[in-house]
Automatic annotation (TrEMBL):
<dbReference type="GO" id="GO:0005829">
    <property type="term" value="C:cytosol"/>
</dbReference>
<dbReference type="InterPro" id="IPR007492">
    <property type="entry name" value="LytTR_DNA-bd_dom"/>
</dbReference>
<keyword id="KW-0238">DNA-binding</keyword>
<keyword id="KW-0597">Phosphoprotein</keyword>
<dbReference type="GO" id="GO:0032993">
    <property type="term" value="C:protein-DNA complex"/>
</dbReference>
<dbReference type="Pfam" id="PF04397">
    <property type="entry name" value="LytTR"/>
</dbReference>
<dbReference type="Pfam" id="PF00072">
    <property type="entry name" value="Response_reg"/>
</dbReference>
<dbReference type="GO" id="GO:0000976">
    <property type="term" value="F:transcription cis-regulatory region binding"/>
</dbReference>
<feature type="modified residue" description="4-aspartylphosphate">
    <location>
        <position position="55"/>
    </location>
</feature>
<feature type="domain" description="Response regulatory">
    <location>
        <begin position="2"/>
        <end position="115"/>
    </location>
</feature>
<dbReference type="GO" id="GO:0006355">
    <property type="term" value="P:regulation of DNA-templated transcription"/>
</dbReference>
<protein>
    <submittedName>
        <fullName>Response regulator transcription factor</fullName>
    </submittedName>
</protein>
<dbReference type="InterPro" id="IPR039420">
    <property type="entry name" value="WalR-like"/>
</dbReference>
<dbReference type="GO" id="GO:0000156">
    <property type="term" value="F:phosphorelay response regulator activity"/>
</dbReference>
<dbReference type="InterPro" id="IPR001789">
    <property type="entry name" value="Sig_transdc_resp-reg_receiver"/>
</dbReference>
<dbReference type="InterPro" id="IPR011006">
    <property type="entry name" value="CheY-like_superfamily"/>
</dbReference>
Length: 256
């Protein structure tokens, strides 16, 4: 059996590979592929695997874009921090979902479910993924978080979204305010935050940083094609956007 892994966080990818090697010792693990474009190129050159384990947020976009552009029929297990409406949609369409950090027992049950479905008789015309994507596109606009809990001098405080300059992953997830305060949050990953933040206000700049538009003074273009962001009141913070995501960032930054 061939299992393809779509994941842009190296530590998460490594953890999944180790778990899969234990749970599916006869399987061949392909990847990890860390971007939408890399995945599209891969599917153009390779036959479909038997199973895909996919994060939703990749380095240059969301994995849904891959499945919209390629007619992929094999089963998927999504491994991500995603909200409840998606959980229901995935399960209704027999597509499983695991919340990061991945629990080995949950992964084991998801693989067992895959094997049950794989041996079942499913009509060739049925495309659960297409139904899922249609449901996601037709969903109501989510209510994004406007206040974030953080720890300050052993006190839990609520920080309004308007005071957030950026989030940074450095062992834990830090919230940095527009006046330069650094507060520890209880979030497990930036992936988890991605689903809580308004994408018109916040941008996932890298694996380490998520920035708020209003806190940006501007950016500089590096000779390699990547962008170096300048944050108000935090000029010493090194925040970059990769060459692959530069066009996406520019479009986001110029929109009101």
């Amino acid at each position: 059996m061939n299992i393809l892994l779509l994941e842009d966080e190296p530590l998460v990818a490594r953890s999944l590979i180790l778990a899969l090697e234990t749970l599916e010792p006869d399987a061949r693990i392909l990847g990890p592929l860390d971007s939408v474009q890399q995945s599209l190129d891969w599917f153009d050159k390779n036959p479909e695997p038997d199973l895909i384990l996919a994060d939703i947020q990749l380095s240059d976009g969301v994995s849904f874009d891959i499945f919209r552009q390629r007619n992929i029929q094999c089963p998927l297990i999504f491994c991500t921090a995603y909200d409840a409406y998606a959980v229901r949609a995935f399960k209704l369409n027999s597509v499983d979902y695991l919340l990061k950090p991945i629990d080995p027992d949950e992964l084991k049950r998801a693989l067992e479910k895959f094997h049950r479905l794989h041996t079942a008789s499913i009509p060739a015309t049925e495309n659960p993924l297409a139904t899922l994507l249609e449901q996601l596109e037709q969903r109501t606009v989510p209510a994004y978080k406007r206040r974030f809990l953080a720890n300050f001098h052993r006190t839990v405080v609520a920080v309004a979204a308007e005071r957030v300059a950026f989030f940074v992953r450095d062992e834990v997830i830090w919230l940095v305010t527009t006046d330069g305060q650094r507060l520890i949050t209880d979030y497990n990953s930036l992936d988890e935050l991605d689903e809580l933040l308004d994408p018109t206000e916040f941008f996932r700049a890298s694996r380490k940083h998520t920035v708020r538009k209003i806190a940006l003074e501007g950016y500089r273009t590096h000779y390699t094609g990547k962008l170096e962001l300048v944050i108000s009141n935090c000029p010493e913070e090194e925040i970059t956007v990769s060459k692959e995501k530069a066009a996406q960032f520019r479009k986001w930054f110029e929109e009101e």
